[in-house]
Amino acid sequence: MTVLITGASRGIGAKLAHLYAASGEPVIGTVRSPRAPEPGITYHTLDVTDPADHARLAQELSGQPIDLLVCNAGVYLDKGHDLETGYGADLWAQSFATNVTGVFLTVQNLLPNLRLARAPKITIISSMMASHERAPGGSYIYRSSKAAVLNLGRNLSTELRPMGIAVGIYQPGWVQTDMGGGDAPETLDSIGPLLKARFDALDMTTSGCFQSPDGSQHPY
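Predicted structure:
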């Protein structure tokens, strides 16, 4: 099984890449800057906001089956912003370009590779902050972009079902990463294996799910 993970240079993406490599699965990680290969992991440069980069990567991987596509790359640019003075229009554009359009372009360009696999899967990292049932305010750009990619994933699950491609959307919780900060209650060591287990369990019967690391359904 070949696994491709976007945003694999650090955080959750890097943890998942190393977990899959350790289990013997060939891993392709995408990074923004060139990176030397590691045991079981090869890296390709990709700016998920750049259509030309996606086209180049698709050409580089032409004919290569991808069994699991993990859309992990994301940004949180409005942390701590104030409603009256923050949330600049440029941050909305940048955030949606990465967190939503970037995911769509990744799926769109690698769809031929997924079709070559026997039981292909797409997993999308959203956030607990995507939930419209739990709406405490703040972080408006990040919340909106993660809600949008949740919607994207749900719609992809419907359109790709006839092709036999399962799509799952996941919220990893609050994790100690550069994005999550040092006060987060979860660590990469605790969350990484749980996410991998969720991805491994994904199939057509659970396609369209929005799950937490423990496998429970997260409120939409």
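Summary: The radius of gyration is 16 Å.
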